[in-house]
Design a protein that fits this description.
Elements: H1 3-17, E1 35-37, E2 43-45, E3 55-64, E4 68-73, E5 82-88, E6 93-99, E7 105-108, E8 120-127, E9 132-137, E10 140-143, E11 158-160, E12 174-180
Antiparallel strand pairs: 1-12, 2-11, 3-8, 3-12, 4-5, 4-11, 5-6, 6-7, 8-9, 9-10
Length: 181
């Protein structure tokens, strides 16, 4: 049996067993139940070498209900350098936010690009030393901001749905699932 026919047999077997479901690219992405975020409810990882990296990808599935921080590695001063992903309900969009000191610079996706009340997937691919980022929503490249070179070396943990060790910043209301960094 050649390779193609082995794959065809495997595919047919998966379909017959109900283990393969055809995926319509236009279908809405529906993740598992997710973590409920809200005032005082967020998840965080303490600062450590595995998250203190200048080149990274961060992604998650989000069902947003209010303005707020989706994910951050941020400190109030912005020094040495930090970042966050923020959701704005009024204009139904997200921002990749970065700073090397006040003020923060916000790189917004277009209005109505990240809808509240529906599951949306986002991914932000960042290269700090090159000063480049790419923001994807539901697999589509939406914006490619450019900024000055930085190492993203702030001494803060990683927080989903708020700031690390700061419950005042945990005001995002919504669901989050499949979060990766």
């Amino acid at each position: 049996m050649n390779r193609l026919s082995k794959h065809a047999v495997l595919f047919a077997g998966l379909v017959a067993l109900g283990l393969f479901v055809a995926w319509d690219v236009q279908a809405q992405f529906i993740p598992n139940r997710g973590m409920r975020a809200g005032v005082g409810n967020w998840m965080q990882i303490p600062d450590n070498p595995s998250i203190a990296i200048p080149v990274f990808t961060v992604e998650a599935c989000v069902k947003a209900s209010s303005n707020g921080l989706i994910v951050t590695r941020d400190i109030p001063s912005g020094l040495p350098s930090d970042w966050q992903v923020y959701f704005e309900k009024k204009n139904q969009r997200i921002a990749f936010v970065t700073a090397t000191g006040p003020p923060d610079i916000l790189y917004w996706t277009p209005n109505n690009s990240f809808l509240a009340g529906t599951w949306q997937h986002f991914a932000v691919v960042v290269n700090g030393p090159l000063g480049r980022a790419r923001v994807y929503i539901n697999g589509e490249l939406i914006i490619s901001p450019k900024f000055s070179s930085r190492q993203f070396d702030c001494k803060s943990g990683l927080a989903w749905c708020g700031y690390h060790d700061n419950d005042v910043g945990a005001y995002f209301d919504g669901l989050i699932d499949e979060a990766r960094y």
